[in-house]
Amino acid sequence: MNDELEEIDIEIQRLKKKLSDYLKFIKIFEEHPEKTEIQINIMLDDLHKLLEKRKTIEGDEY
Q1: Could you give the CA distance from residue 12 to residue 17 in angstroms, rounded to a whole number?
Q2: Domain that holds residue 54
């Protein structure tokens, strides 16, 4: 289980970095607001799923 938690934590960090990079990118290239909102919502949804998965795994350990 610890390996699975480590993998999820790595994926969470990767996704946070991706979101941060995307926010910098849109400031430079001025993406359309609708496209920006969709992309950010997708990344936030993915992050939420990973956090829920980690919470479930952590709960199963106890």
Answers
A1: 9
A2: 2-61
